[in-house]
Specification:
- 4 copies of one chain form a homotetramer.
- Chain A is an alpha/beta fold.
- Chain A folds into 2 domains: 242 residues, Rossmann fold, CATH 3.40.50; 162 residues, Phosphofructokinase domain (Rossmann fold).
- In chain A, 34% of the residues lie in helices and 17% in strands.
- In chain A, the strands form 4 sheets. The first copy, chain A, has a 9-stranded mixed beta sheet, sandwiched between helices. The first copy, chain A, has a 4-stranded parallel beta sheet with strand order 12-13-11-14, with helices on both faces. A two-stranded antiparallel sheet of chain A has the order 1-15.
- In chain A, strand 9, helix 4 and strand 10 form a beta-alpha-beta unit.
- In chain A, helix 6 packs across helix 12.
- The longest helix of chain A has 20 residues.
- The first copy, chain A, is elongated and about 75 Å long.
- In chain A, 59% of the residues are buried.
- Chains A and C meet through loops of A and loops of C.
- Chains A, B, C, D: One of its GO terms (molecular function) is diphosphate-fructose-6-phosphate 1-phosphotransferase activity.
């Protein structure tokens, strides 16, 4: 299976990684705790000499953190938070961190919680915003989901900015996936066109962990932990029957990070199938033959499947969902059906148990690691907005919290590099290359 | 919805609750720890005066526990354990308890683990039994499933008893559901016919908690705990979208105990649909209208569905599975489809998230409560077998471990009594009667 | 160790198990869900024929549940809840269940939450009561502790009843241990003396599970589950060093139920020391010799200690705490010191790790089993109060929720019967009788 | 409190970060899965331009991973693993990963598990090594602790190398803290002196996360997660009594990372006291006054204390433990005593509950994040050893797995930089600077 792999080209960087600003910061800070990040503190993009491009330039990104001088007068500042797209562990933690930082450390006048995603800006939907006080958010991190509610899909940018102006919002925090970040970019354009002073800060959210230039998205660690629960059960089911097969489908439309990472966490998985590594079902090097070899040798098998794996085997309908994502074909059904036919033909009396834990993976509260991460993201988002930054996201890169241009995170997707040491580790831990190889590996 | 309910008749008791025995116990016990249960210690069946039948007789059941005199000579005793049917939390705990009790307390010569259910007795399947030593079972309770594997469906009784005779087994422990208990009864008949001295002790297993005269089956408590994890996520999903609906399907073919109990545990559930309480989809008193009222009033809803609920709404195919159970129609798909149609007609833009946690509920390790319970079941099963009891199950009734005739547990199923205080509590905690009632409850 | 055990006498029942009432119930019920428990429904105390006293009378207890006719007019009824003594998993669940039942099902006019135990009734402490609305209690079951706060010790009964009269309270719910139940009894006396119409209903709470005539107190199941976490760690520590000893002290002042039950749950414990089963430290049959034998044979040992075990080995100071409990001597320190001396003398280089998880055991949220239990206790407490019952507690006996006279639960304590099958199981699962026996068991 | 802080100087790097090797690698690799890391692949030490020293040189470290050419002939290679010092989540995961990688991917002839730390090398202790086969380690990651056992303190280096030679060991993997890493360095010296070909690879372990040049030690993430359980309980206890104080002591002899990180995870903590940030007990800026202000304002307080905090307030005895660490004074006892005196003097009737979860924090199994981390550490340790590297540790730096000279990790300790954005976040999330400031913050 390996020789055929052609590797991912490295993502190309845009020329300019500098962050837009509403204007020079001026108002003396009232930050209570005085360690500031100078505005020119930066982090290298590349940490390995071999990754530096031929021109020898290692680009740098702006470091996040509290600035000594801020742009907005806190006493007159009104903030708004909106959460868009699918659920993900930690959204409530980000909402809480933004709210507490804005109230306790900057003493802003209010924080508004927009209901149900971008719909909440549009009058005719009639969703009244929530007043996010410290008391209102005190315990929300103990619960999964988002207390604001969410929705998918775009809304008219003009009406959104109308809302912001009418409500006198200075800082808008947008928590969402790459579709949402593109919407945020359009909101910034409209704000610029109107020459109003509103900072727009994104907090990228995707349970698939597939956003470019973000080491790991919040909630991913929790998602992996929950996915291992499902895999553990699939293992018990596989061992529980002659020729038992446990099949788990996890999220991962275009990137198989949850599948790969949870396989590494348990090291009880026999096959990991991800969108980045194509496979055939049929033929001596196909999955069905590999699975048969595994069953013949060990009597059971655990298969972890990213939802976007093997899409080449399905006929796409071309349909899209409300967020504009192409509807994926149902690879799990195809595999279940083809395994049944194949095992019947091979005379193997198998038992396949299928687990789809998706909503249980994404709707749990964040674990302590993600809580901490979300706390920093929220705090740094507020620091950035108060300093007058706009059109950017807060993120972590090479271990530092940074400001990234919105444009950087919306171009392309992060994928597993199947030529990497990481993917090799996955293959080693599953041993699947042995079974995919008709000569016995 | 209430007036129409007609209640369950109380299950009728067979005339004889006495336990069969292979013969008088005689060999002096070598039990290390000397508190014995006299053979005539018994427990009342009915604990409420009003449940005693008109004849005034409150039947009694034999108490379980170590006997001062035992039937088998431990040094010559070989035991076997077989696990059948679907997985359930705690099976490994029962296997471990039987093995440790037999080895440590009675010092039997060996305990054999039969692989893959009744198949393991049948030569042509080629499943070699495991030697269950204390070391081999030391940590198995930390894992879900069954280390022996399981299978469904009957096998020829003659071949099973041939196996037992050939392997010189004195005590057979059968862990399984009611189909398995019927198989155990047939094994006892064949043993009796052959006049061999083999004790057969059942440990009833069903995650549905639907076995007659067993207060609660092992694993049920764990299953409820796990089901609440799914419901918690469904709640987060329902709150996360305008008109969000979280739909969870849990196990419960003919009895809705998991659905009802997990709704009581969380008290965040809005509708519990179980096989015992029929409902319509259509009409002003139907589920679709009730759900619509709920959404209109509160904006979201959590629905917990037992897999066997609403079967009257589906056309049965009459097919059966390997265990002989009638294949249920897929009520979840029907509800999802009909809700979509109905909400479209009502002009309600809803989001339904469906979670089926079944294999995650049944394949986890037992929680501490079930661990303790399984430990006692296993120990008492060994005590019963060594005392020469046969054709019985160990169980808990009115807080005591007891010996019950196999015939008692295989007649009929335990169901939720919809006229009970218990079901009323479920309805109160969901408030569903309010929404099912077109006049506002 | 066994022959010397003298067993507990069975607790004697008071002559009268009937429940006091404020007067005949009369106001037609507005219960929304109509299955009522007739006032004469009763449950037998004894379930085993051999437990029935020589006079042949099996006493009965009143069954709990909603009554068709109630005493108080809900629209004019004000309730109050107070929580006293140490924390225990599930207190918030009981508060929540009482509040939701009173509001949703009876539509009472208000529920008052008294702050910090009996202190909250006394003006000079200045603790303002909380208004317990359904929204205020919606999520409190997700948190350990008590949202009302607690305190220890008595307060003047006159001032308490003054408070109830002044605030126009009709139903008082008292959640607490046996000291609190005695205080509740004195409150009832004062109410009776004043001839006012106030129902006082107790919900017995003790993490030690040592209240007479209550099968299991709420929170105990959760406490056992948490205690097993500590024992699991003690096991890892014991295995992690040559002659490693893991020592865990759990709650249990006069009764060792948590110690015994958590040992049964894990079956990895080597010694369980409880107040009911005396032991010596020195001598060939003493604990130090037993521990030495165990280390010599297996190289490690796990010891679980109830805090009240071995008090005969300590000189009592005679001091009492605010609740009037005698201050226990510190058995853990004594054992750690004596083990160190003994092992030094024996030339055994040991490592002892001591874990006291007490506050982590009692301050966690209730698990699903306890949630359900607390839900029923709270609902039935409201049913009892609304029906005009008073001077009683709600409890579970032989599987049914019942009304018990306050006097019954305050007389004596429930202890482990060291002659029982239960304790024998503990000894079998630890194997400690082998090591306590100098002849090798 | 802030102005007085003087910051940590940045740790100075040794001049040479290159890795020793036993000789050129030559034998063609039999790695099954062919993506190799070239031997000259390196990672920058500094990722922020401002951290680069005045000479403008950003040092680089060798990247870990499988090499195309290896030094040892796998068929003749015998490995050994030893675990030293205190327990830490994930040790079994590292043992398992080394064993599986060595057996499955390199097909080495055997892996030996040395019992009880360095003691296991010394004949007179009589600890027989374990044969670590893939089957033997299959499930060990589900358990805390170390299956090999551990011990503290040094052993004669000559005897250790005698053992390695006698047993024909080629690769020794040493899992332990900085004392152990110094022992490993001495073993390397002796091996070099004898001119034998034995690779020694360290895997640094410390639950305090205080090893220089290691972003995060394995087990730390799990430890934080477990510590938050204790803090959650302390919070429930603090809320449960008038003027309730919950005091939690966590590990952290010289570095307060667990305390700080778990405070960030929960954001319910009011005071974090760590060794890096000195504090006084008395005076208007002392802890007792700060705690009093907090109680007066909010009625409760949660305090998290690293074991090494406030040592200046205690008289050191100068004693050391078996590992050579100075015995810390008991700061918790001092604080409990002084709080009691102070509150009495202030007329505040307080309740303090003290939780020491140390052994429960360090003895649990690794969470999924640490499982993955330990898996990579173990795999890369084997890759390094097989390539003939020696005198180094595997570690993660700037997101990459790297080879670090042993000397680098044993010089000094990593501490919280109290001038950093990180510590500011801790102070913001606790708000403690407000209470430490007599003017109200």
């Amino acid at each position: 299976m390996f020789p055929e792999i052609s590797c991912l080209p490295a993502p190309e960087l845009p020329e300019d990684l500098s962050i837009s600003s509403l204007g020079p910061a001026k108002i003396p800070s009232n930050l209570r705790c005085g360690r500031f990040i100078p505005d020119d503190a930066r982090i290298y993009v590349h940490v390995s000499p071999s990754a530096i491009p031929p021109n020898g330039v290692n680009p740098t990104i702006e470091m996040a953190g509290p600035r000594e001088r801020i742009y907005f007068d806190p006493t007159k500042t009104r903030c708004a938070i909106v959460t868009c797209g699918g659920l993900c562990p930690g959204i409530n933690d980000v909402i809480r961190a933004i709210t507490l930082e804005a109230h306790h450390n900057y003493r802003v006048s209010s924080v508004l919680g927009i209901r149900y995603g971008l719909e909440g800006f549009i009058e005719r939907h009639g969703h009244t915003p929530l007043d996010l006080t410290p008391a209102a958010v005190a315990n929300i991190h103990e619960f999964g989901g988002t207390i604001l509610g969410s929705s998918r899909g775009p809304q008219p940018v003009e009406e959104i900015v109308d809302f912001l102006e009418r409500r006198n919002i200075s800082c808008l925090f947008v928590i969402g996936g790459d579709g949402t970040m593109r919407a945020a970019a359009r909101i910034v354009e409209e704000i610029t066109r109107r020459k109003v002073k509103i900072a727009v800060i994104g907090v990228p959210k995707t349970i698939d962990n597939d956003i470019n230039f973000i080491s790991q998205t919040f909630g991913f660690d929790t998602a992996v932990q929950e996915a291992t629960r499902a895999i553990r059960c699939a293992h018990a089911e596989a061992l529980g029957a002659p020729n038992g097969i446990g099949l788990v489908k996890v999220m991962g439309r275009e990137s198989g990070f949850i599948a790969a990472q949870s396989a590494l966490a348990l090291r009880d998985v026999d096959f990991v199938l991800v969108p980045e590594d194509n496979f055939e079902l049929d033929g001596p090097k196909g999955f069905l033959a590999a699975l048969t070899r595994r069953l013949r040798r060990r009597g059971h098998a655990v298969v972890v499947l990213a939802e976007g794996a093997g899409q080449a085997l399905l006929r796409s309908t071309g349909e899209t969902d409300a967020s504009g994502n192409i509807k994926l074909g149902d690879i799990a059904s195809l595999i279940i059906r083809r395994v049944a036919e194949h095992m019947k033909a091979e005379g193997i009396d198998h038992t396949l148990k299928y687990i789809d834990p998706s909503y249980m993976v994404r709707s749990v509260p964040a674990n302590s690691n993600d809580c901490i991460y979300c706390g920093f993201l929220g705090q740094n988002a507020v620091h950035a907005a108060m300093a007058g930054k706009t059109g950017m996201v807060v993120s972590k890169w090479n271990g530092y919290y940074v400001h990234m241009p919105l444009s950087l995170v919306t171009q392309g997707r992060k994928k597993i590099d199947v030529c990497s040491n990481y993917w090799r580790s996955v293959l080693e831990s599953t041993g699947q290359y042995v079974y995919f190889n008709p000569d016995g590996g």
